[in-house]
Amino acid sequence: MSAAPAEMKEHAEANAKWLDAHYDPVANLYTFSPCIALADLQGDGESKLVVGDLGTGLCSMKLKVYRGTSLMSENTLLDLPTGLVSFHMDQHEPRTPAIAVASGPFIYVYKNLRPYFKFTLPSLEVNPLEQEVWSQAKEDMIDPMSLKEMLEGIRDKADIPLSVRSLKFLILDPKEMEAFVNLHKQQPIRRQTVITCISTLKKNMADEDAVSCLVIGTESKDVYILDPEAFTILSKMSLPSAPTLMDVTGQFDVEFRITVACRNGNIYVLRRESPKPKYCIELTSHPVGLVRVGKNVVVGCAQETLQGYTQKGKKLWTVYLPAPITAMGLMDHHSRGFQAVLVGLANSEVHLYRDKNLISTIKTPDVITSICFGRYGREEGTLIMTTKGGGLMVKILKRTAVFEDRDMAPGPPLAQSIRLNVPKKTKLYVDQTMRERENAVAMHRAFQMDLSRLRLAVARAYVKALESSLTPVSASLSDPLKMNAVVQGLGPSFKLTLNIQNTAVCRPVMNLAVSFLYDEALYSMRNAFFQIPLLVPGLNYPINTFVECLTDKGISDIIKVFVLREGKSAPLLTAHINMPVSEGLALN
Amino acid sequence: MEVPMDPLFLAWSYFRRRKFQQCSEVCAKILEDTPYDQAAWSLKTRALTEMVYIDEVDVDQEGIAEMMLDESSIAQVARPGTSLRLPGTSHGGGPTPAVRPMTHSGRPMTGFVRPSTQSGRPGTMEQAIKTPRTAHTARPVTSASGRFVRLGTASMLTNPEGPFINLSRLNLAKYAQKPNLSKTLFEYIFHHENDVKNALDLAALATEHAQFKDWWWKVQLGKCYYRLGLHREAEKQFRSALNHQEFVDTYLYLAKVYQRLDQPITALNLFKQGLDYFPGEVTLLTGIARIHEEMNNIPSATEYYKDVLKQDNTHVEAIACIGSNHFYTDQPEIALRFYRRLLQMGVYNCQLYNNLGLCCFYAQQYDMTLSSFERALSLVASDEELADVWYNLGHVAVGIGELTLAYQCFKLALANNNDHAEAYNNLAVLELRKGRIEQAKAFLQTAASLAPHMYEPHFNLSTLSDTLGDLQSSYMAAQKSEDAFPEHVDTQQILKNLRQHFSVL
């Protein structure tokens, strides 16, 4: 019952920040964050959504462009896209960006949504032994079986891996080998790598619409920077492992940084003029998302954590997430100067983190597979998400939305950081502690001596009290009793109530009597001696008696009550009752 | 040859040297010779009055009858901050009862015992009569009896041959015509004979004779009305007297009337008005501070006490109150300074050494702690004081981990004062540590019945019953604890747990 209002509240809280602009659960759009981009393709001031659709598997890979809530155009792609970026190739007016789609070893460049250029990665060096074996096969000098044996030998020993053709050949059934060799032996052997990630890097200006180079990471553990107009390789850098995620900042001609998350679980930082990585961040698990916020790098890991690092690889913080990460993106609101990290989770939530603080949560109807924030249409703060089920969701950030910089996640409460109002230690206190420090030995001795004297004094007084049974609590183990007396009335007649209780665990007490000692000139009692019934343990026995005050002088005295045991002269308990002044007589 | 001094001059001289007994004897001798000597008669009345004179401004104790049979109260549930009767309405942000102990009335312990701090306002008639009515804590039936009776007994006991003036045979109308005699006669009737009705008659006649222009008679009329409980009439007289003559005493009397009418805000305004005429007047400032203190607004009370000290740096009440406030706000070293100042001023009693010992202990000046308590023990005047010293020694023993010593000290506190609820409570905790559950329970019940205003025994009983599995008693005790101290977090916690438990069952 209590969960429902909380959920509603959360929902209302998310609603307070985001407008639901569009949701099409059957948009038939299957993609990942690298294959989604927002670009003003026609130069008309309206941003479009460009999506590299992975299709349903092997076919129907498409380049789709959305405008508003409708699909604007659709181009068929030849292969699965691995990344999609929009970039400005040249200085021509109008400034319309081009789209580069990376798939396999190629980059397809589209301008005005028309195919414009196809870039192919340079082919790799082929193993000379392999080349020779195939040339022998071409001249039919060896049969397929010996070809297979020789290729296997090369595969096991050689430094340079086999080409795709040889590898394909090796997995074939012996029956099919003949045909395969006949089909392919005429072509020269080529070894080709594939693109794993793609990004852009401004050439020499930092403007929004400046000319950008393409930066690509390949399966062959290389990073290439391509010239935007001629598509020649401007720079090549190599990494210890194959890159999977990439983030680029800076300008090619000035200084740049390429942060690359690699398949070996490390993050490398590449800089201008250094063919080898400058810094290395070793993660404890595989990176699944990489976002740069300002000068820090936020990495989503497969262990359901989000980690923050500085540019130089120093770890800043770790946040534990409730579910695995499915998508990550940067939320960069230029006009507000607001930057945060969007994290799509497998439990159908999108969390918004600023540094390590969770500042907002969006619930989504399905698991998010890609996420992108930016200008869409004419609206600057738009959040675009695609879901696992092929849906497209567009949310608009409200202009009134305010993100508080506090943590919504459970953890140390906010109150922990509030300073308590502890009174300041005075100078006097400091002086006294100084005195204590300087004269510690003397003070300790004085205290110990006083304490011994006090113990003696207390012991004397205590023994005296015990001997005369002055206490209202009996100390003897055989009759643990307790008594207290209450006087009621205004006078001259008073009611005395003695509350007697047996505090033993389970033994009753009997044969007890009560007697009173008082000044007979001042008071008179109806009976100053009587028996007490058997006392059951744990119960309170109120015993009432009446006292008459005889004086009219406004004087009062003490009445002593003794609890006695039959056959013993010393009382078990004594109580002193300070009688109040009798006002009944004095008033007359 | 010895020349005898003029007897009247001799009597006058005795009077000025405050040897009232000799003065009255000499006057009696003169009056034997010349029964109509007005000077001697007047001097004797003054001497007899001075013997029993108490300052009417300070002494005030609300009796049971005034409190329970109160006709002038308008709202039973006053708004917070406007009444003296709601002790719980703390708005000053002072320390909670967990830090600063409460008096019987549910007010934080003050640094200075006054009639009004001692007496609380019990909720019911039964509670009013039942509270342990010892000679020290008992509340008089009415303010007309009680202390005035006790103080007035001097007149009953010292004149065995009969009163000096037989009031019933006095022609009040005649004396009212003579201003030189009437004032002393009035004071004699009011203070010595404690006969308010005759005093009122005389004052009424005298003010008529003075054509309602003498402010002194109006003040006396007001005093009489106040004694008789006619507060509105008293207010009228004091107001009228103030119109004739601004006078500090009149302000104090009028403020007393307003406090009795439970109008502390009006009283405060009146004091401030008085301060406009008499800036820096100590008694007015003290009055303001006392009202703030009674309304649980400790911080502003402290501010006013500081103002008092600026005017009069030997004001014992102000020093003591500021000292105790510092002690309870975790600054015992400053409290120590204030108490030392009292010592330097010549206040030399058990309570002061007791406080000094506690301050030394909490300010970590261990070498002086126990010697102060020793001094306090040697200065003890009554069993109650002795019990308090033993109780505090018990606290010190608990602080240094000497539980056996603490046990003995608390027992001794109980031996000297059977109604020491705090000692019962602490003793119960010590018994519980020893594992004697039945004893602990009995002590806690006693403490709870002796001091229903304390939350500690209720809370301890509640936790004890809770661990024993007696949830019903635990719940009842926790509710009482909540009544005594609503903000106590642990009580709230235990209540919450119990409610949850009950609803689950």
Notes on the structure:
Chain A has 588 residues and is an alpha+beta fold. Among the domains of chain A are: 128-184, no CATH class; 427-467; 481-586, Sandwich (Immunoglobulin-like), CATH 2.60.40.10. In chain A, a hairpin with a 2-residue loop joins strand 18 and strand 19. In chain A, helix 2 (128-138) runs antiparallel to helix 3 (144-157). Chain B is mostly helical and 505 residues long. Among the domains of chain B are: 7-52, no CATH class; 331-418, Serine Threonine Protein Phosphatase 5, Tetratricopeptide repeat (Alpha Horseshoe), CATH 1.25.40. Chain B is elongated.
Summary?
The complex is a heterodimer of chains A (588) and B (505). Mean pLDDT of chain A is 84; it is low at 1-8. Chain A is 17% helix and 41% strand.
Reconstruct the topology from this structure.
The complex is a heterodimer of chains A (588) and B (505).
Chain A: H1 3-15, E1 18-24, E2 36-39, E3 48-53, E4 62-67, E5 70-76, E6 83-87, E7 98-103, E8 106-111, E9 114-120, H2 128-138, H3 144-157, H4 164-170, H5 174-184, E10 195-202, E11 212-218, E12 222-226, E13 233-238, E14 243-251, E15 255-262, E16 266-271, E17 279-282, E18 287-293, E19 296-301, E20 305-310, E21 315-320, E22 325-333, E23 338-345, E24 349-354, E25 357-363, E26 368-376, E27 379-387, E28 392-397, H6 427-438, H7 440-467, E29 481-488, E30 493-502, E31 512-517, E32 523-525, E33 529-532, E34 540-549, E35 558-565, E36 573-578, H8 583-586
Antiparallel strand pairs in A: 1-28, 2-3, 3-4, 4-5, 6-7, 7-8, 8-9, 10-11, 11-12, 12-13, 14-15, 15-16, 16-17, 18-19, 19-20, 20-21, 22-23, 23-24, 24-25, 26-27, 27-28, 29-30, 30-34, 31-33, 31-35, 32-34, 35-36
Helix pairs in contact in A: 2-3
Chain B: H1 7-16, H2 20-33, H3 38-52, H4 64-68, H5 115-118, H6 125-130, H7 147-158, H8 172-176, H9 179-192, H10 196-209, H11 215-227, H12 231-244, H13 248-260, H14 264-277, H15 282-294, H16 298-311, H17 316-328, H18 332-344, H19 350-362, H20 366-378, H21 383-399, H22 403-416, H23 421-434, H24 437-450, H25 456-468, H26 471-484, H27 489-504
Helix pairs in contact in B: 1-2, 1-3, 2-3, 3-9, 9-10, 10-11, 11-12, 12-13, 13-14, 13-15, 14-15, 15-16, 16-17, 17-18, 18-19, 19-20, 19-21, 20-21, 21-22, 22-23, 23-24, 24-25, 25-26, 26-27
